[in-house]
Amino acid sequence: METQTENSLFPKGDKLENRYFSGDAFLKPLLAKDRNNKFALGSVTFEPGARTNWHTHPKGQVLIVTEGEGFYQEKGKSAQSIKKGDVVNIPENITHWHGATANTRMVHIAISNYKGEENVTWLKPVSDEEFDAVNK
User: Fold this and answer.
1) How far is it, in rounded angstroms, from Cα 114 to Cα 92?
2) For the whole prediction, is pTM greater than 0.90?
3) Is 5 contained in some domain?
4) Has residue 71 been placed in a domain?
């Protein structure tokens, strides 16, 4: 398994399927949902240019940026720049995406809450035009 910089909190993890991500993204699972915790916790690494598809979470999500710089954008709103130390509290059922900038890697811890057995609904990819617009 490939590791990150010596200052990284966690190893890089395994490459994620490009069906829900554009570019190279990796996941290191940290905690699975169980009878005590109704959320999953993971460290996600986005190499430069990598990002999620548009998606929603039925009970919301929290992102804690641990390295680098990236973007978070809700549908119909301007993208927000996010960097190491930022916390993003995403309300339930808000269509959004997040990922690295075009030139820098970004790592975040994702806390994804469950509603029953569901924690995410994946939608269409963020187009290159949409991504390029936020990287100007």
Assistant:
1) 10
2) yes
3) no
4) yes
